[in-house]
Every structure is written in C-alpha cells, then in structure tokens.
Prior knowledge:
Layout: H1 3-20, H2 22-28, E1 33-38, E2 41-46, H3 49-58, H4 60-70, E3 76-81, H5 82-91, H6 148-158, E4 171-174, H7 181-195, E5 200-204, H8 205-217, H9 221-229, E6 233-237, H10 245-260, E7 264-269, H11 281-288, E8 291-294, H12 300-315, H13 325-334, H14 339-356, H15 362-368, H16 383-393, H17 398-402, H18 408-424, H19 429-435, H20 441-455, H21 459-473
Parallel strand pairs: 2-3, 4-7, 4-8, 5-6, 6-7
Antiparallel strand pairs: 1-2
Helix pairs in contact: 1-2, 1-4, 6-7, 8-9, 12-13, 12-14, 16-18, 18-20, 19-20
Amino acid sequence: MSNADQDGWARVKGRLRAEVGDDVYSSWFARMDLEAIEEGTVRLSVPTRFLKSWIQSHYAERVLACWQAEQAQVGRIELIVRSAVLRSAIVKPKAELEIGAGDGGRFNNNGNGRPQPVGDATGHEALGGSPLDARLTFETFVVGRSNTLAQAAAKQVAAGKRGDAVMFNPLYIHAGVGLGKTHLLQAVTWTGNATGERKVLYLTAEKFMYGFVSALRTQTALAFKEALRGIGVLVIDDLQFLQGKSTQAEFCHTLNALIDAGRQVVIASDRPPSDLESLDDRVRSRLAGGLVVEMGPLGEELRLEILKSRVLAARSHHPSFDVPLPVLSYIAKAVTHNGRDLEGALNRLLAHNKLTGQSVTLEMAEREVRDLIRPQEPKRVKIEDIQRVVARQYNVSRSDLLSSRRTANVVRPRQVAMYLAKTLTLRSLPEIGRRFGGRDHTTVLHAVRKIEGLVGNDMALAEEIEILKRQLQE
C-alpha cells in the first residue's frame, strides 16, 4: 500500500471524525483499518462482525462519500472482518511489510509469540470461541505504571488451577481503545489452555450474541447454555457491544451460574460497569462486585518501551530494519493517543525503509507520522466523565450522585461534581441539574457557590479539586 493511499486514508478519517463527532467516531470507526485500494474499490477492515453490520447499516454511504471527496474514482467500499484475515495470518505467520495487527491492544509483541493456529489442540474453535492471535501472550506484553495491576491480576487468574479458590470474580478490565485489553484477555486464554488445568473460552460480545441467536434459531439454546456453563474460565471481550434484552438476560444467567459454581469469568470493556447504561442493573451490580481494574493512558516511558519491542519484532522478518533511539524517542513523545497509532507509525517507517531503501531518520519520521500527532488542544470534558471521576475519588457510585440521598458522604461529592460541571463544561445550570437526577437549577447554583466558598478557605479541598481537574483534562 502506497504512502499516498495511507495519507488519503488519514484525510478520510479526519473528514469522518469531523462529520460524526468524536464520540461516534471512537465508538464505531476507531478500529477500522485500510487494507487495500484496487480498481476503484476501497477495502476496509474491522475486528468484529457486529461492527461490520452496524457500519454497513448506518454509515456505509457516509464513509463512501468521505472517500469520494478525497478520491473521485472510488466507487465502492468493501468492509471485511479482520479476524478472518488474522486467522490465516496465524496459520501461516509469514509477515511482509506489516508488523502488527490493527486491533486494540495488539502492540505489545516482541516477536516471541507462539505460532499456534486457531483450532489447535485446545479445541478452542470447536467450542465456538473467537479467533486468537498467537502473538498476544504475557511474554509479549509490555508492562508499565498504567497497566501493572491489570497485568498482575490477569496473570493470577491465568495461573489458577482446577479446584483453587477463585480470588477475583469476575475480573473486569476497562480501558480506552488500543491500550491492551484484548492482549491481556487473549494472554489469559493462551496461558490457561496451555496448562490444561481449566478449559478457557475466549468470546467477543459479538460472538456471544451470534452464538446465542443461532442457538435459538436452531432450537439448541439449552445445549448452548450448558456448553457455556461447563467452561472453566469464560473470557468476554468488548462487553460494551452486548445488545438485545434476551441476549443480555442470557449473559446475566450465564454470569451468575459460572460465578456461583466457582468458575472464573474475565471481562473487558471500554468503560467501567457503572457506565454500561444499556445493561441491566443486576448485571452491572454483579460485574462491579468483582475486581474492577482500569488500564490508564500509555505514559511516554511505556510508549518508548513498546516501540523498542515492536522494532525487535520487525527484525525477525527484516533483520536490517533499524530505528535510531532519537527517532523512537521522538515518536514516543509525539504520538500519544494509543498503541495502534504507535504501531502505525512504525509500519510507515518500515514500509518507507523497505520500499525506498532509505535509512530511517528523524526527518523521515517527522514527515511520515505528522497526521498521527494529535493537536494539543484542551480536552472536551463531558458530564459523564466528571461523575465517573468524582465517584471514584470519593468512593461512591455514580448512581449515588444522581440519587436523592442527603448523607454527608454523598452530598459533598455531588456538590463537587456539579461545581466541576459548571466550570469545565459549557452546559447551563438547568442542563446540569437535569444530568444530576433532574434537579432544579437553583440546587446546582447553591452547590457551585458552596464549593467556591469552601475552596478559598479549605486548602485540602482546593487541592482535591485541582487533582480532579487534571485527571479530567489529561
């Protein structure tokens, strides 16, 4: 794929983000990758059939229009599921210029992944599991301050033996796009099945929905349920995509049955359980009752270590590929959003190096990754983010902040959250009141004035609020 095609794709993504907004773009298009452009057809890939179906149903014409605005000769968009490409790549793991899959978290690979095909002796495919990437193991996961707890908890779960008391159940890992959730969940699956102690089944939420609906159609729902509940460790990825009342009800029954029977459940999502508002309250409560771990943004030091590991992985196929440390340091400092952007930056340098024969230099890197450098504009803070961060800081739930409870341990955090909503967003007092359980605007005004008065005299509270502001604006 040429640099011109990649530059065109970057501009299309920019158009798409501008048209649909950051929230919609992050939900549906952040994991869409360009695979090829051939004779007026643009082939794009996404990691799940659910994403493919949703984009085709709701955004196909808009994606095509964005492409045609950049390249008038484009007449058709073809959307494919990346897992199918991934599976064939695992069976025959001969990499060409591409040095990494484009799915969230698949950036911590140092080239030592086990070349085990999907559907091997673990019986994973026969159980109806989602495809696994043999590179996503604990050995290839780069650990830093933002993911230490999540990695340690995942390893503890993976090392469990049949009959052991289950310590963290469910283990619930949440993080933004491209921060390593999928990597950890697949590492748990590989490790658990390799020991043979417990059968581990890895499913995306989309695969769970597909399996349940198919079982209903073929009148094998009972067998489907029994098969799931016989699993030693159930691993569910991308829970935020779980849709449908009947599917969610079945997931709730399965979750309860496994936990009550002492079976391990591991779940990943892009948000904490309290923010999964489409899920039933009982499910959210059960999820929150386990160990909930957040994987934070990648710090600069961790980004540099990830880049070093990716260069080592590339050298297993391209021994002459070399990226000077100043170039890696520049990318680690400039490309800050997620692991996929880091991987994309190295892919471009590798492609340029191999196709042109030019050595990788700082000037080349500055030119090739300029569209991956996010503008350093202030982050747009949402009221939901404020409620989540304040609830975590004061050890209350988001529902407490929205409730009518008047106990001291809830009133103060609620007032702080309202104050931050007024100072960090452009929302009006009535709108803020509606977002806090339908309160009157005078209640919000009282809370804002109360906190303003306290901040001037209470240094500890003032410092707390500054910490909350920094967390929200990072």
